[in-house]
Design goal:
There is one protein chain. By secondary structure, the protein is α+β, with helices and mostly antiparallel strands. 27% of the residues lie in helices and 34% in strands. The strands form three sheets. Strands 4-5-6-9-8-7 form a six-stranded antiparallel beta sheet. A two-stranded antiparallel ribbon has the order 1-2. Strands 3-10 form a two-stranded parallel sheet. Strand 8 and strand 9 form a beta hairpin. The mean pLDDT is 86.
Length: 234
Amino acid sequence: MQPKFALIKQHIIDNIRAYKWQENDRVPSENELAEQFQVSRMTARRALTELTDAGVLNRSQGLGTFVASFKSQSSMLEIRNIADEVADRGGNYSCTVLTLESMSAIAPIAIALGVEINSQVYRSVLVHNDTEQPLQVEERFVNPKQAPHYLQQDFSQITPHEYLTQVAPLTEARHTVEAISPNSEVCQWLNLFNEEPCLQIIRRTWSADGIVSFARLISPGSKYRLGGHLTFRR
């Protein structure tokens, strides 16, 4: 049997999915949920807090709790598994594998991975989906020395991030973020019918043994955003 706070979370997610509650609509208060589900305010508060932390709700002191923007949100301060991000928002994650291959590294890729030009590297192109809708294109180049069995993985079942974290634990990451106009190929992958501005993240990751991967992540501007929370200590 599910705990009561989980039932409250599911109730809220179901109402959002059914469009009974739209973006920026106010959701029931802690007191209202506690009375409706016959639970303590603490239990209701936990449900609202967890959905707020997942980006599903926004809480405003003195005003109440509201349905957040439907854009998926990723943090600039941490690297999360996109499947977990989608699940946290109540979506159903799936992945479409477009390319999985070995290739000769041209100069920019070789430099990014710290390998010799024309040496063999691995390349994957995936589309991450949220409830069957394209959310993000991921093109990733991988150093075979760090993940020799990369091409043998079923990325419809495990994300590249999740797999690489297992075989080459992350010690460092660097990324840049910019707005871009997608080319026709990206528009096709993301089911965009016009050149909607997209968010592009270029990310390099390291393990203790060196550079692991170089990735380009592209998402429609209408479906994705970056955010973060900083705590400063005195």
